[in-house]
């Protein structure tokens, strides 16, 4: 599930996607020197990768720089990719780690923005729970809820914000998130549980 669309991200929509080739086949072609295969992987994942990093940083230009650097690093390191995990989790791990490093270095708490969210985004568990009783005022309430949710998410640590992004926004599984963050599914579940508790506490006036 993408939070930021291609227009908001400043990235043009692709005319076609390399659905006919599996990631494994494309990776093998890249290892054999096929630059077009890496272009296909970039085209396939750049928008979703941008969404993840943008939601971590809350800054469009910084996110685009990090995504570009992540693809450069992925290309230079692809020889070390052995296929023990899915290619996209390996790629996400590179980008997420770069995003975390950036946040730590900047020592700033960035703003997690829902400004480009749509009705599909509103199905995320926290937002849906908050808006379930809005009735006819649902649109207005969702706008206010998102603003308050932004403020609440801003207070989360980087590691807790990251798992919320990957689980609630990207829709990845606990196992996939564990591979990306270098933890275990149990750790992911614990972080999600803690993050949701914190969000519910901070947003209790809207939940009750």
Write a compact overview of the structure shown.
With 208 residues, the chain is an all-alpha fold. Helices cover 67% and strands 0% of the residues.
Give me some keywords for this one.
disordered N terminus; mainly alpha; 0% strand
Structure description:
The chain has helices at 6-9, 23-31, 35-57, 60-77, 87-106, 125-131, 138-154, 158-169, 174-181, 185-202, 204-207. With 208 residues, the chain is an all-alpha fold. It has 11 helices and no strands. Helix content is 67%, strand content 0%.
Low-confidence stretches: 1-20, 108-123, 129-134
Tally of helical segments: 11
Shape: elongated
* Helix and strand element order: HHHHHHHHHHH
Largest sheet: none
Q: How do the strands and helices of this protein lay out in sequence?
A:
Layout (H helix, E strand, L loop, with lengths): L5 H4 L13 H9 L3 H23 L2 H18 L9 H20 L18 H7 L6 H17 L3 H12 L4 H8 L3 H18 L1 H4 L1
Helix pairs in contact: 2-3, 3-4, 3-5, 4-5, 5-9, 8-10, 9-10
């Amino acid at each position: 599930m993408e939070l930021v669309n291609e227009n908001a991200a400043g990235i043009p929509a692709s005319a076609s996607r390399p659905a006919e080739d599996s990631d494994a086949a494309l990776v093998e072609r890249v290892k054999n020197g096929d630059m077009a295969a890496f272009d296909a992987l970039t085209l396939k994942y750049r928008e979703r990768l941008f969404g993840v990093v943008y939601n971590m940083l809350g800054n469009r230009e910084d996110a685009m720089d990090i995504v570009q650097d992540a693809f450069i690093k992925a290309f230079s390191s692809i020889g070390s990719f052995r296929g023990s995990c899915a290619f996209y989790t390996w790629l996400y791990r590179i980008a997420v780690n770069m995003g975390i490093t950036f946040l730590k270095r900047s020592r700033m708490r960035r703003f997690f923005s829902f400004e480009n969210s749509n009705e599909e985004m509103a199905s995320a568990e926290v937002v849906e729970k908050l808006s379930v009783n809005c009735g006819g005022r649902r649109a207005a309430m969702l706008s206010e809820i998102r603003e308050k949710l932004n403020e609440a998410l801003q207070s989360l640590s980087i590691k807790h914000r990251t798992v919320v992004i990957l689980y609630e926004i990207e829709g990845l599984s606990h196992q996939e998130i564990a591979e990306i963050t270098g933890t275990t599914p149990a750790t992911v579940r614990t972080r999600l549980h803690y993050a949701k508790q914190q969000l519910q506490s901070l947003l209790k006036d809207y939940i009750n």
